Fold:
Amino acid sequence: MRFWKKEPRNSEKRLSHPNDNLYVTLSQGFPSDRDQVAIHTPDKDYSWADIEALSAQYAHALASLKLNEGARVAVQVEKSPEALMLYLACLRAGYVYLPLNTAYQRNEVAYFLGDAAPELLVCDPAFLSTLKEVAAECGTEHVLTLDAQGQGSLTDLAAGQSRTFNTVARQADALAAILYTSGTTGRSKGAMLSHGNLASNAQVLHDFWGWSSDDVLLHMLPIFHVHGLFVASHGALLAGAKMIWLPKLDIDQALHYLPQSTLMMGVPTYYVRLLAHEGFTREVCRSMRLFISGSAPLLEETFRAFQERIGQSILERYGMSETIMLTSNPYHEDQGPRVAGTVGRPLPGVNVRIVDDQDNPVAEGAVGHVQVQGPNVFSGYWQMPEKTAEEFTTDHWFRTGDMGQWTPVEGGHEYLSIVGRNSDMVITGGYNVYPKEIELLIDTFDGVNESAVVGIPDPDFGEAVIAAVVPLPGQTVDVDALNDYLRAELANYKVPKQIHIIDELPRNTMAKVQKNVLRQQFAK
Structure:
């Protein structure tokens, strides 16, 4: 395979630097003029000097709590530049960052705190009373606050601290972050990512996607997720590139800032909604060099509509919480075309194979299990050695859980196509949803005999979560009350878009629920 490669800036310095702390790697890309704008928000600008100073003050604030070396810091806050500073501060102080989706409810947060045993929880002030109780129950000693405006008790604690901080030395294999990804049994798993995992992926993407200090990233993604925190933010920081920082997708704001931007990352929903607006034109995108889509499958109709409207092809790539990015459609035309329905070729340093149930290579073009290797692949699941052992082969390949095949494309290349999953996971709006967790809740509701949750194609979210519910004999199920119950217990994106009451679940001769039948039925 032939890959375009650009010599990384400061490459010799990166290789020879004795401190493998990810912050050191990222900061080597900061421009020499630290007064340049690094982050622009509609209300305020932050310079590169501000990033260094604020992350230093936050690091001192964390250190003042006398946390143990390698302590976990759980964070459930709204997106703000200060939230990014908190992440960088955790790296600089040598702590392990544990981001939590802002949609998680009390019981979900309780599980993560109980499992990861963080010494500090940083939360939104609006939920302090509830989460302080949860933290106490789970043995989390410290609770601080940070709101969407970057204010709270954490900011107060950091205010009087020094604006310089000696970043703690860390080896490449030292733990930097834990990202929880649910399992099909309903028990969430904490993927352990090292400083080296994150740095290697950032450096590869820097070269492969042609990042430079002239780029301006339109950042509208959440930062509790691999896509927004690691892929997008790391890319801009390592390149010394400016970020236009918006709290979420807002079409009017996006159309305002696109002419000032060169690069955008989004989930497929973002592109569907932009295309639905008549103001999304080639003229608005005149300075854009790259649109990237990920976290969920991009429908071919969206890919084609975007090509026709904007005159560019969206670059689709493939990754997961345990590995960050694995494959990518090409950036440069001499690498090959961007092909709808594929996720491209393995990134430099990453190996991908497709195997059968016995881990043997499948025939050319056949569908099989996707397995991967590379310096970006995580070391295992937090406190789950048996599960970790299950997910790695004897020759040290990680089982992604996805089904794929190699697809021949123009120019004699082969691209990876993800054709399904060997679990029932649903990806909606870029977020993973595991049906078992929802089914267990539904089955405890009054009048419910059993249930099945599936995903069906949705032009806006990629997939929509749908529930089929079978009542107990002679009883009825109040759908509105069930909806209210689920909304109180689950993050919004997990709540089914539709609940169907049916007489019985379709089953095969072995009494296994045929979810494929349900998908076909509800997709109509």
